């Protein structure tokens, strides 16, 4: 059986979107993310967070600060028996690196028809499309994306969709 992947953006999906969340005192969970991830994990999906983190290169926070948040996220999911992986791009947009969304450098896994990307920005949806991910789900009340295949107004709306 092929591996299936659930890709999640971090800021706005895993945690509340505050510009440049680089320290734990600015990190606030979207509590629903645990239920969403648990749903997919129980269905055999590998969970991967893919996140642009230019705040590192902008010197808004250090790589160590970012690593501390990553460890915290991983530990909180481990507490409920879920293994996750985190991939990040620390580069500025003007560097035009291959890993920064909407580029595809964080999506190097072999594609499966069931793979899903959940994000809150058009760049998340575009990166997923560019990577060959068929299921591109946007959670946003404001952002419009021609690349999204489903749009939810909130995490709660996504949960309702999953359980019906």
Mean pLDDT comes to 96
Q: What's the tally of helices?
A: 4
End-to-end Cα distance, whole Å, is 26 Å
The number of strands is 6
Low-confidence stretches: none
The profile of the biggest β sheet is: 6 strands, parallel
Q: Which class do the helix and strand fractions yield? A: alpha/beta
Run of helices and strands:
EHEHEEHEEH
Quaternary organisation: single chain
Quick structural gist:
This protein is α/β, with parallel strands linked by helices and 164 residues long. It has four helices and six strands.
Structure description:
With 164 residues, the chain is α/β, with parallel strands linked by helices. The chain is 27% helix and 19% strand. The chain is built from four helices and six strands, in the order βαβαββαββα. The chain has a six-stranded parallel sheet, with helices on both faces. α2 (63-79) links the parallel β2 (45-52) and β3. α1 (33-42) runs parallel beside α4. The longest helix has 17 residues, at 63-79.
Record the SSE blueprint.
Elements: E1 4-8, H1 33-42, E2 45-52, H2 63-79, E3 84-89, E4 116-119, H3 122-130, E5 135-139, E6 150-152, H4 155-163
Parallel strand pairs: 1-2, 1-4, 2-3, 4-5, 5-6
